[in-house]
# Entry
Amino acid sequence: MPSRLSLLMISLFVMMASGLSVAAQSRPVTVFAAASLKTALDDVVEHYSNRTGKPVQVSYAASSALARQIQYGAPADIFISANTDWMDWLQQDGLLRDETRVDLLSNRLVLIAAPGNDTQLKIALNFDLAGALDQSWLAMALTNAVPAGIYGKAALQSLGVWDDVKDHVAQSDNVRAALIHVATGEASMGIVYATDAGVDPRVRIVDVFPRDSHPEILYPAAVVDDSSNPDAPLFLGFLSNPEARQIFSEYGFDQPGGTP
# Structure
């Protein structure tokens, strides 16, 4: 028969194990997500947590910055990028669970104007963006690193106007920062995602870039390989269900392939 001390030790072990189990179950899913997702994803997270009682915390930044943080060992459970390149980069390093990767969303690229700027301009081959700027600034995310900036530069190059405006581009760390530059009048125009323009009533959409002027804007997502949170795959699955898709659609996101 076990001694009283043995029974006490067993009870303590069971209590500790139970406590660890509860802690593991209540640990928030940590999501690293592209800055352009913030408003919509915050809404999706709220619906998920209200429905399941499970917490989710999201860190927003440029996809490039988040990918580098994951490479350096930052404790993320899920990564959502605003382009496929940074997701491919992590996947090639074996830092993602390949079988969980999914293309969640797509977006459109738009030219926006600051408050009081009533410029009318149709985006087309060799359109006069330089004339519309009139020596003022064009706000963009970093054109060599951040997806929105990469897409924007590609579009301007394909339309033949990049060389005309490149010296008037004011680059920001992420697309939401570029949006703010235009909304506050620091830049007279800017290139952002359609969903960004939709969250700030101070800016006006001048025109939408043709889909064929830049690579398709995709938001791939995957569970990070080092994640030990059992709720990470559950939340990733929720992002693709009809309820989440409806929320994303209300904020202007499309499904991959351009389907609303």
